[in-house]
Design brief:
The complex is a heterodimer of chains A (about 300) and B (about 375). By secondary structure, chain A is mostly helical. Chain A folds into 2 domains: about 70 residues, no CATH class; about 230 residues, MetI-like (MetI-like fold, Orthogonal Bundle). Chain A has 14 helices and 4 strands. The longest helix of chain A has about 35 residues. Chain A is flat and about 85 Å long. In chain A, about 25% of the residues are buried. Chain B has 2 domains: about 230 residues, 3-Layer(aba) Sandwich (Rossmann fold); about 120 residues, OB fold (Dihydrolipoamide Acetyltransferase, E2P). Chain B is built from 8 helices and 20 strands. Chain B has a 6-stranded mixed sheet with strand order 6-7-8-3-9-10, with helices on both faces. In chain B, strands 13-12-11-14-20 form a 5-stranded antiparallel sheet. In chain B, a hairpin with a 2-residue loop joins β9 and β10. The two termini of chain B are about 35 Å apart. Classes of the chains: A mainly alpha (about 300), B alpha+beta (about 375). At the A-B interface, α9 and α10 of A face β6 and α2 of B.
């Protein structure tokens, strides 16, 4: 009797120990789909480049050295890869400015939607998401059509006689910024709206009641209370902006590269896969560090306030 | 020269919507609120009392009319410039600040020196007996405590007028009773004019110096609690404040303010007539339930009315009786105070008589 009970229990615990096997498909997908390609990229970054792309199966640190250093063409001495560093700086800079601009434009937009009557809010949100329906490439070409030398703006200005020669707008950092702000704006508006919708507008009235001017109500009450939305929106914009490829390659031309274009270049014409892989991992590390710093700062303030 | 009124509402209207959807939340209303007064706006929900309060606070601007604060027209002044503070129905405490930061917010916005803010916040915490919880977040304190913080926050900048928008409605009965006394104490100690909005007539009667009864955007009657209760201006006020019995009758001769009214159910009764009131023919007479007692139906000399007892409701302090009068339509409510260890004298289904106290009946202005 007790023996039988014992075996049943043992069977059961054996079953329980085997249960994780049921999650095997999910684990495999996570491993193969998420970690797998990353591991390949990591591995490639430590191999030597092949002559026509691809890699040679020989361990090499050249890819990683190439991220920040470059060989002199004549005497093989190493010096700082100023081109790479300036592309890094430009990418971080442009992404930061994009984040700030989308915040400046997105905040009033989200506030506007959140203060509409409940019935019309859905319509406004719907309008915000319309750009998502169109392919990114097509949207970017649309901007190109507006700002190129023979485009809409220059055409109008010349026709009205305000300028004689077209203003060079395409292939500038300004063009890249315009494109990125346009593309990433919904990613800022949606999380901002989500936290503004939860904002109790009676608190805004309480602020006005207690002698706070509209500007101070914004600074002392609204911004602290919608901070989670600001953080989420900034992360959602900054990260893809840092790795942006389509927008800078079309609107920035060949000259004004960002990290995404530099990486693409190594896998394409550059035929330097290890360098491309090392650059990709570097980009990932930048994003991770930026996120950690941001979340920690915002988090510590958040726990003090909310 | 007479003292200026603290707040004066002059022919103020507030119309929401346009065209055929236009709706007057406040309809050409005038009222004066005196200095250091506990003034209550009383009415059912949707009567415009909260809109009137929001007009005084500055959250809404009147469509027409003037709002004077100590003689100065503030109708177009934004809320952050008005020396008026509000205790909100939901308290609206800032969740990202501590109790002390909440109380000090108004003073900080006014640009007071740090030292002054600190001493004032401490004084306020003491006034509402919340010293121990100064560093707490507003989410970590109970509803009654939040209520006190909201009061302290609104009182801290020493406003000329304090507005209270149904501040006690979220509290349970016992706490509400305590806060009613607390509010009266605070008003006496600070000497600030309080304008209190409520739909609870009992709260209004116990707390106010004067009450304005509102309905459909209009003020129907302004007076002290006794006037409002004993001499309601019209049927709405009589019905809204306390329980009331209405009897129809024909008015006869009026002598010294007392009319002889011939009612179908109670025969001839004498009823007080409001001043400057002249009426002929059909009038309505009001009778409060506590001004009548049950009597045995076999003593017709003592009882003016008779009927069948339909309901006996025991309330602890008193018992309510609902009597269907002899006309078969009118249900008359009366209330008797309970005496110690007294068994119910009558039970449902009994034939009973009703005796009215002297001066109980009053003729209503239409």
């Amino acid at each position: 009797m007790t023996d039988a009970a014992g075996t049943i229990e043992a069977e059961q615990s054996k079953d329980i120990r085997k249960r994780w096997l049921l999650s095997l498909p999910a684990l495999l997908i996570i491993l193969l789909a998420a970690t797998g390609p990353l591991l390949i990229v990591l591995l490639y970054s430590f191999l030597a480049p092949g002559p026509y792309g691809d890699v040679q199966w020989a361990p090499s640190l050249e890819g990683w050295i190439g991220v920040f250093l470059e060989k002199d063409i004549f005497d093989e001495t190493l010096s700082l890869a100023s081109a790479h560093i300036s592309i890094f700086m430009r990418s971080v800079g442009l992404s930061l400015v994009t984040t700030i601009l989308t915040l400046l434009v997105g905040f009033p937009t989200a506030y506007f939607i959140a203060t509409r009557p409940e019935k019309t809010r859905e319509l406004w949100l719907f309008l915000i998401t319309i750009p998502f329906w169109t392919n990114l490439l097509i949207r970017t070409f649309a901007i190109l059509e507006v700002i190129r030398n023979e485009g809409l703006i220059n055409g109008l200005l010349i026709k009205t006689g305000l300028i004689a020669k077209p203003i060079q707008m395409l292939f500038t950092d300004g063009a890249i910024l315009t494109g990125m702000v346009y593309v990433y704006l919904p990613l800022m508006v949606l999380p901002l709206y989500a936290s503004m919708e939860k904002l109790d507008f009676r608190l805004v009235e309480a602020g006005y009641d207690l002698y706070a001017t509209p500007f101070r109500v914004l600074r002392k009450i609204i911004i602290p209370l919608v901070k989670p939305g600001i953080i989420a929106g900034s992360i959602l914009v900054f990260i893809p902006a840092l790795g942006a490829y389509v927008t800078p390659s079309i609107l920035g031309g060949g000259k004004n590269m960002m990290l995404g274009n530099l990486i693409e270049l190594q896998f394409g014409q550059g035929r330097n896969w290890p360098l491309g892989s090392a650059l990709s991992i570097t980009l990932m590390l930048i994003v991770m560090v930026a996120l950690l710093v941001y979340v920690r700062n915002a988090g510590s303030q958040g726990s003090r306030h909310g | 020269m007479a003292e200026l009124n603290a707040v004066e509402i002059r022919q103020v209207s507030k119309i929401f919507g346009f065209g055929e959807f236009a709706f007057a939340a406040v309809d050409n209303t005038s009222v004066s609120i005196r200095q250091n007064e506990f003034f209550t706006l009383l009415g059912p929900s949707g009567c415009g009392k909260t809109t009137l309060l929001r007009l005084i606070a500055g959250f809404e601007y009147p469509t027409s009319g003037e709002i004077l604060l100590n003689g100065e027209n503030i109708a177009a002044m934004p809320p952050f410039k008005r020396p008026i503070n509000t205790v909100f129905q939901s308290y609206a405490l800032f969740p990202h600040m501590t109790v002390a930061e909440n109380i000090g917010f108004g003073l900080t916005m006014l640009g007071k020196p740090k030292q002054e803010i600190k001493s004032r916040v401490d004084a306020m915490l003491k006034l509402v007996r919340m010293e121990a919880l100064a560093g707490r977040r507003t989410s970590q304190i109970s509803g009654g405590q939040q209520q006190r913080v909201a009061l302290a926050r609104a009182l801290a900048p020493q406003p000329k007028v304090l507005l209270l928008d149904e501040p006690l409605s979220a509290l349970d009965y016992k706490l509400r009773k305590d806060m009613q006394i607390e509010l009266k104490r605070l008003q006496a100690e600070t000497g600030i004019t309080f304008i209190f909005v409520t739909h609870d007539q009992e709260e209004a009667l116990t707390m106010s110096d004067r009450i304005a009864v509102m309905s459909s955007g209009k003020i129907l009657q302004v007076g002290n609690p006794r006037e409002i209760y004993d001499a309601p201006a019209d049927r709405f006020v009589a019905d809204f404040i306390g329980e009331t019995n209405f009897l129809k009758g024909r008015i006869g001769s009026v002598v010294n303010g007392v009319a002889d009214v011939d009612t179908s159910v109670a025969g001839r009764i004498s009823a007080t007539v409001p001043q400057d009131f002249h009426a002929e023919g059909e009038v309505t007479v009001v009778l409060r339930p506590e001004h009548a007692t049950l009597c045995p139906p076999d003593q017709p000399a003592a009882c003016q009315m008779s009927g069948t007892l339909e309901n006996v409701v025991y309330f602890g302090t008193d018992t309510h009786y609902h009597v269907r009068l002899s006309d078969g339509e009118t249900v008359f409510t009366l209330r008797e105070q309970n005496k110690p260890l007294q068994a119910a004298r009558f039970s449902a289904g009994d034939r009973v008589g009703i005796a009215l106290e002297a001066n109980a009946a009053r003729v209503l202005r239409n």
